[in-house]
From TrEMBL, chain A:
Chief localisation class: membrane
Region feature (Disordered): 406-436
Keyword terms: Cell membrane, Membrane, NAD, Quinone, Translocase, Transmembrane, Transmembrane helix, Ubiquinone
Keyword Zinc recorded: no
InterPro entries: NADH_UbQ_OxRdtase_su1/FPO, NADH_UbQ_OxRdtase_su1_CS
Mode of membrane association: Multi-pass membrane protein
Pfam family, one: NADHdh
Name the UniProt record assigns to this protein: NADH-quinone oxidoreductase subunit H
Keyword flag Transmembrane helix: yes
Family from the record: Belongs to the complex I subunit 1 family.
Organism: Promicromonospora umidemergens
Catalytic reaction(s) noted: a quinone + NADH + 5 H(+)(in) = a quinol + NAD(+) + 4 H(+)(out)
Gene that encodes it: nuoH
Function according to Swiss-Prot or TrEMBL: NDH-1 shuttles electrons from NADH, via FMN and iron-sulfur (Fe-S) centers, to quinones in the respiratory chain. The immediate electron acceptor for the enzyme in this species is believed to be ubiquinone. Couples the redox reaction to proton translocation (for every two electrons transferred, four hydrogen ions are translocated across the cytoplasmic membrane), and thus conserves the redox energy in a proton gradient. This subunit may bind ubiquinone.
TrEMBL record, chain B:
NCBIfam families: PRK06638.1-5 (NF005165)
PANTHER family, alphabetized: NADH-QUINONE OXIDOREDUCTASE SUBUNIT J, NADH-UBIQUINONE OXIDOREDUCTASE CHAIN 6
Primary localization: membrane
The family this protein is said to belong to: Belongs to the complex I subunit 6 family.
Stated name of the protein: NADH-quinone oxidoreductase subunit J
Residue ranges crossing the lipid bilayer per the database entry: 14-33, 40-56, 68-90, 102-124, 152-173
Compositionally skewed regions (Low complexity) per UniProt: 252-266
UniProt-listed Enzyme Commission number(s): 7.1.1.-
Reaction it catalyzes: a quinone + NADH + 5 H(+)(in) = a quinol + NAD(+) + 4 H(+)(out)
Region feature (Disordered): 240-273
Source species, domain of life: Bacteria
């Protein structure tokens, strides 16, 4: 059966695909690909420009207005570069890997709603502003993301070289562990919206966008989406200082460009999912009844969607310009010992609260004493929590206390103390420093 | 045999006849390719194609879960292990148990005969379709959830507990007790500074020499005193005896314009520009 007729017939999907024809789907698919490719060109310029402004330098400003044509020039340069194939590479897989990456990254936008149903001025024909939707659309996004990792893993393996292999292994571990946290944070949206279809999830955010009631899940999603796309501070699979370029070290020219393209499309993908699931999708950032809901009809919602999309993209760039790369072990510890337990705990709490509200009929006001009580207990525990951590084994604190302070100026020059040595207390300790 | 409304559409027929032969090819490839990673790729292809067929047969949840769980997680772990262990074309094909190949062939033929007999004798009831207008069809994730977490909740819990037990068991079995205190970044730094008098160098080792006729890794640099600096050559090359002596004569200072061309620019450095 045609998947489109399936989507129209499926229960739990708000978007109405009943008037959809195969030609409309083809036009939409082409439009999505064009949108993604131009967005990538813009995203590269956007990232370089914003990072540059954060580092107090102009960024690309030479080609075209505001340097907008810079990424076009870079793309042309990549196309014309020499296409190298490593001798030890496994040729078929080596070629296949970047294709898998790009293909899987293009899949996700099929279920992202750009707006409600669009009607054209000269006809009475309406169509939803998304390619397709079905009851498990968000799971489909996860599936496409998990397939996309094969591009990275196989690219690293097929290069037949050490750094790419290390990058590939890192990326596997990273994506598996961060996808768990991401999936768990999405589960809370499923619980609240009662659906996994993207159009229905957007429809469920008429009253309130989910990022407010589901703030912990939103934070976990934002963290894990950065981990999932291998961006700073989680770009360990391609850490320049450690692995040259990780899995794409041995790729050049167009094959490298495909990986590059896939990375930026993936950024757009996770941002679009974030907007759709947590930030109200295409809904205007004003209450729904404002102007009789005129802001949420017709072609206008596409603008809201794009504004929100680029706001999330800005967060990506902001994080990149601010944070340093994590050490690999710290990164894994953070994923497994912080993100996943917190996400699990949050889902359990949310499920219990939802059960109380929907099945037991407990109202929100009944929760307030419990929330206050829990907060009081938490503050009390934190108040009496012993402040000092136990000294790590091997360091003897008592021995250091008894030591004579070392004279740092013994040789005429100030010398920092060696481990185990202690400086005399500073003469300025406790004094106020007066400014001008 | 098919009741009204359950005819297979032309699109689905085309999809089946395009995907099915490719799946059979990939499944055969799984058996016959040499490299383990290629076999894994064949399996991934079969799994994804199966997911496509599931979706075409009105079971989108099953299809998507097939990709997320099996292709995304299970096969990824397989690949992970393959890459870590480094299983390669040079897998040993020697028999570890005498005659295991023949036993394997016999058992395989037996299994094929049994399966063939069962499939040949099977009779199928008339197709009923998945939804059939009934909103409680299994294609609907909510109905599926009701079946799994309503009717079979005990079985689900038992399976979950078993899996968690297995995971914890694996952790316990591979766990080692820490006999020495854990090295932190601070303790390592302290240890290195304490070892300074014994000749440990804190800074990075000097790079190899760069000369007009030789800037290879195997040529030592010259110190400011004109002496060769042996640490500037990789330890591996020194142990192998592949170190080359530095050129004779005083070191020549090369103008910076010629060395600038030598620094290669990687794509990574360009995108950070």
């Amino acid at each position: 059966m045609n998947p489109l007729t399936l989507a129209a017939a499926a229960p739990g999907v708000t978007a109405d695909f009943s008037q959809e024809t195969i030609w409309a789907s083809i036009v939409k698919a082409v439009l999505i690909v064009v949108f993604l490719l131009t967005s990538v060109l813009f995203a590269i310029w956007f990232e370089r420009k914003v990072v540059a402004r954060m580092q107090v330098r102009p960024g690309p400003n030479w080609h075209g207005p505001f340097g907008l044509l810079q990424s076009l020039g870079d793309a042309m340069k990549l196309l014309l570069k020499e296409d190298l194939t490593v001798t030890r590479a496994d040729r078929f897989v080596y070629l296949l890997a970047p294709m898998i990456s790009v293909f899987c990254s293009l899949l996700v936008f099929a279920v992202i709603p750009f707006g409600p149903s669009l009607s054209f001025f000269w006809t009475d024909w309406t169509t939803p502003a998304q390619l397709t939707d079905f009851p498990v659309a968000v799971l489909y996004v996860l599936a496409a993301a998990s397939l996309g990792v094969y591009g990275i893993v196989l690219g690293g393996w097929a290069s037949g070289s050490t750094y790419p292999l290390l990058g590939a292994v890192r990326s596997t571990a990273q994506v598996i562990s961060y996808e768990l946290a991401m999936g768990l944070s999405l589960v809370s949206v499923f619980i609240m919206a009662g659906s996994m279809s993207t159009s229905q999830i957007v429809d469920s955010q008429t009253q309130i966008w989910w990022f407010i009631p589901l703030a912990p899940a939103f934070v976990i999603y934002v963290i894990s989406m950065i981990g999932e796309t291998n961006r700073l501070p989680f770009d360990l699979p391609e850490a320049e200082g450690e692995l040259v370029s990780g899995y794409m070290t041995e790729y050049s020219s167009m094959k490298f460009a495909w990986f590059f393209l896939a990375e930026y499309i993936n950024m757009l993908n996770v941002s679009a999912v974030c907007v759709t699931l947590f930030l109200g999708g295409w809904r205007a950032p004003v209450p729904d009844a404002f102007l009789g809901g005129a802001l949420n009809e017709g072609w206008l919602p596409i603008i809201w969607f794009l504004v929100k999309l680029w706001a999330v993209m800005f967060v990506f760039v902001w994080v990149r310009g601010t944070l340093l790369r994590l050490r690999y072990d710290q990164f894994m510890v953070f994923g497994w010992k912080v993100l996943i337990p917190v996400a699990l705990g949050w889902v359990v709490v949310l499920a219990v609260v939802q059960w109380l509200q929907r099945v037991q009929g407990v109202t929100f006001l009944d929760f307030i004493p419990w929330i206050v009580g829990a907060a009081v207990v938490f503050i009390a525990i934190m108040w009496f929590w012993p402040e000092k951590k136990e000294a790590p084994p091997g360091t003897d604190v008592s021995a250091e206390k008894d030591k004579e302070p070392v004279d740092a100026f013994a040789g005429g020059f100030p010398v920092p103390p060696l481990p185990g040595e202690k400086l005399p207390p500073s003469k300025r300790f406790g004094k106020e420093v007066h400014g001008e | 045999m098919t009741p009204a409304g359950l005819e297979i559409s032309g699109g689905e027929t085309v999809l089946f006849w395009v995907i099915a032969p490719l799946m059979v090819l990939a499944a055969l490839g799984l058996l016959f390719v040499k490299r383990a990673v290629h076999a894994a790729m064949c399996l991934v292809f079969v799994m994804v194609s199966m997911a496509i067929l599931y979706i075409a047969q009105e079971a989108p949840f099953l299809g998507v879960v097939q990709v997320v769980v099996y292709t995304g997680a299970v096969m990824m772990l397989f690949l992970f292990v393959l890459m870590l262990v480094g299983v390669d074309a040079s897998d040993s094909l020697t028999e570890t148990i005498r005659g295991q190949r023949w036993i394997g062939v016999l058992i395989g033929i037996g299994l094929a005969v049994i399966l063939g007999g069962v499939v040949a004798n099977a009779t199928f009831p008339p197709a009923a379709g998945l939804g059939g207008g009934d909103p409680g069809g299994v294609a609907n994730p909510q109905a599926l959830a009701r079946v799994l977490f309503g009717d079979y909740v005990l079985a689900m819990e038992a399976v979950g507990v078993l899996l968690v037990t297995a995971a914890v068991g694996a952790l316990v079995l591979t766990h080692r007790r820490r006999l020495t205190p854990k090295q932190t970044q601070e303790s390592v730094a302290d240890r290195r500074i304490k070892a300074l008098p014994d000749g440990v160098v804190l800074t990075p080792l000097p790079p190899p020499g760069v000369y007009a006729r030789s800037n290879a890794m195997d040529t030592p640099a010259l110190g400011p005193d004109g002496e060769q600096v042996p640490q500037s050559v990789s330890r591996v090359l020194r142990i192998r005896g592949q170190e080359r002596p530095a050129p004779e004569g005083p070191a020549v200072v090369v103008s910076t314009s010629s060395t600038r061309g030598a620094t290669s620019s990687t794509p990574e450095s360009e995108r950070d520009a």
